[in-house]
Amino acid sequence: MEALTKANSANGCPLTPLSFLERAATVYGDCASVVYKDEVFTWAQTLDRCLRLASSLVRLGVSPGDVVSVVAPNTPAMYEMHFGVPMSGAVLNTLNTRLDARTISVLLRHAESRVVFVDGESRSVVEEALARFGPGERKPVVVPVEDGELAAPAEAVTYESLVRGGDPRFRWVRPASDWTPMVLNHTSGTTAEPKGVVHCHRGLFVITVDSLLSWSVPTRPVYLWTLPMYHANGWSFPWGMAAAGGTNVCLRRFDAAAVYAVIRRHRVTHLCGAPVVLNMLASAAEDAAAAGPPVEILTAGAPPPAAVLLRAEAKGFRVSHGYGLTETAGLVVTCAWKPAWDGLPAGERARIKARQGVRTLGTAEVDVVEPETGRAVARDGKAMGEVVLRGGSLMLGYLKDPAGTERCIRGDGWFYTGDVGVVHPDGYVEIRDRSKDVIISGGENISSVEVESVLYTHPGVYEAAVVARPDEHWGETPCAFVSPRPGPGVGLSEEEIVAYCRERLPKYMVPKTVVVRDELPKTSTGKIQKFLLRDMARALGPTRPASRM
Q: Are strands 475-484 and 91-95 parallel, antiparallel or unpaired?
């Protein structure tokens, strides 16, 4: 056996999710791959276009390992670039379309991008970002992406001209090893400055197959792109839909009415979104159940309030819940459902489903540990610690930041997430907070998520977030930011919210301050930007001893 412990020339070929596209073109060649407005592409056409794009990038001078950035919404071009860019040997870098010029400039320079593809709606902000480059700094080649009325300048090299002029027989550049970088993703920056997360071909292969299995995705699904593809590469589903031979329904922008209309028109079976998207759909007047069978929706990004889960399922969505980070390339923990839970009352089912759950099949281990000692916390659903992970989809590291990489990937073999959680007696993990969001009041640790879950049960609350406000006596106290549910006659007051919480929470967890706003600040992926709310709470100044609990 000792002589058979290494890979050989036949079984040692690197794993890559790019290979799913070739198979899709063979098996599902005449089936719809991408739908956008009234335009429909087949899988054979998508492979052809991606090979042409890859060959044109090589002709432009792009070499293996070069970074190619994209600033675009969920359009066919954005989908194709998830294959075409890495098929050229380059590293794909998708940037948030809602970033300002300063941030885009920083990220393009950090990535040393050779090319940047730019959607028409983002052209001006990218031009401003490039104007911030210094005189000696190399600027990336700008390639406009056309979309109907958003035409590119006539003389410009455009996305479509690269596709038209490319070679459909191009032999795409396969990775040299499993560990060859394939994507560079910048974190959302909700808690700190964005970091550049690098993932390899093998890790993205693992997370793609793992995500399909964990969500029980069948062949030929109809997948609606409500989750931005620039957000952790759409949790790996650009490659997953190729593996499953699915139909990608693209939306440039959406609201609840648009989503329900597309669900009915295309008989959508699956979609993903952060809890804020789930809340938007659950609060709309439309009903998904009227469109046909239940629509599978996968949510992650923040712990979804049980009240929102309950409303969404009443609307005809079958909700699955998972947990992941940019650093894991997708969801690595999932609330795997047990048949014994089917008979529980609806509220109890929703409460259980709000837990993050257990490791996926492709994840080696997940635990909750004391960050100082590394010892596992008690499995009692009460003892809190930091969530740690290990598995094949974890990042290679942070670009140009070895110290940051070492801080979260430590010598004990764990990736430290910065999230605070508990482990229930049944082994299921539940996230209680980001470590930065835990409120320490009079020596007591208060989970902002627990307070938010109560706020979401109030019939007039649409959005809620709880952060720490300085307190002269207790150190910190909970400060709740809430927005009212849309509709006539709906209003909220600080007194009403405080009274509601007093009936449902321990005294020390009741918000001492309530701020009512029309809308809470969010990232483009739907995460409430708590760092902005923390700044607002600090700007209010410390609460005085007269407001002691």
A: unpaired
